[in-house]
Amino acid sequence: MTRRVLLYGAMLVIVVVSLFPFFWMVVTSLKPDQDIFTKTPEFLPTSPILDRYVHLFDGAVPRQFLNSVLVAGATTLITGVIALLAGYALARYKIPLKRYLLIVILSIQMLPQTVLVIPLFVVLRNTGLLGTYQGLILSHLALTVGLATYMLRSFYLDIPVELEESAMVDGASRMKAVRLVVFPLVWPGLAASSIYGFITSWNELMFSATYMQQSDRETLPVALQQYFSSYYSDWGGVMAASVIFTIPVVVFFLLVQKRLMQGMVAGAVKG
């Protein structure tokens, strides 16, 4: 009984600590400016205001929101397809120098983003993709594909190759065996890599600010900068925009939560 009470208590503490920043963000977005900077901040706003949210939807935020959804959604989809196929190839086929190829893939993930800005800028400029959605999506793929491929390779390695061989003995081709037997089992890994790809693309700022100079193609991370200046920071506006900014990530996580939990359990009972 004592152990169960301690376990539930620890879970409650974790939930409160995890959700409190989001709660405080929502509360701050509803407070008047004079209440935000008081020496004794109030836990709940005495006179909540919705003007900041009205201002957001009256401005360019809806367009910027759609831009972010488009870029992050396309990046997640393409990352998933590439990682699904590349991860299988790295897990099942005998590729020359495969160990070194894996090291290169992980090494790319270790590169600071600032190192990639200029080379990608030159590539996008020379190909005519600078300032386009396609160019920004390609630059985001440089941040997501490597680790997503490595993650899915690990999930493929956990699937016994005998399952594919049994399907092929029954008359299925390799592609049919992979599609009907392997892909359904690797769904948890795809969910985990999709969450990683979506969050990485959704939060990305440096590439978006550098390559997307047109105001009608700005993403939300770039739009958040308008609330900061050399002499003043609109923290209420930042918090209101951050609430809008956070909602799609939460929704996307809830959509793939079941698959992700399956993957975590599968990894916990490996072997």
Automatic annotation (TrEMBL):
<feature type="transmembrane region" description="Helical">
    <location>
        <begin position="100"/>
        <end position="124"/>
    </location>
</feature>
<feature type="transmembrane region" description="Helical">
    <location>
        <begin position="136"/>
        <end position="156"/>
    </location>
</feature>
<keyword id="KW-0472">Membrane</keyword>
<keyword id="KW-1133">Transmembrane helix</keyword>
<protein>
    <submittedName>
        <fullName>Sugar ABC transporter permease</fullName>
    </submittedName>
</protein>
<dbReference type="GO" id="GO:0055085">
    <property type="term" value="P:transmembrane transport"/>
</dbReference>
<feature type="domain" description="ABC transmembrane type-1">
    <location>
        <begin position="65"/>
        <end position="256"/>
    </location>
</feature>
<keyword id="KW-0813">Transport</keyword>
<feature type="transmembrane region" description="Helical">
    <location>
        <begin position="65"/>
        <end position="88"/>
    </location>
</feature>
<dbReference type="InterPro" id="IPR035906">
    <property type="entry name" value="MetI-like_sf"/>
</dbReference>
<feature type="transmembrane region" description="Helical">
    <location>
        <begin position="177"/>
        <end position="199"/>
    </location>
</feature>
<comment type="similarity">
    <text>Belongs to the binding-protein-dependent transport system permease family.</text>
</comment>
<dbReference type="InterPro" id="IPR050901">
    <property type="entry name" value="BP-dep_ABC_trans_perm"/>
</dbReference>
<keyword id="KW-1003">Cell membrane</keyword>
<dbReference type="InterPro" id="IPR000515">
    <property type="entry name" value="MetI-like"/>
</dbReference>
<dbReference type="Pfam" id="PF00528">
    <property type="entry name" value="BPD_transp_1"/>
</dbReference>
<feature type="transmembrane region" description="Helical">
    <location>
        <begin position="5"/>
        <end position="27"/>
    </location>
</feature>
<dbReference type="GO" id="GO:0005886">
    <property type="term" value="C:plasma membrane"/>
</dbReference>
<keyword id="KW-0812">Transmembrane</keyword>
<feature type="transmembrane region" description="Helical">
    <location>
        <begin position="235"/>
        <end position="256"/>
    </location>
</feature>
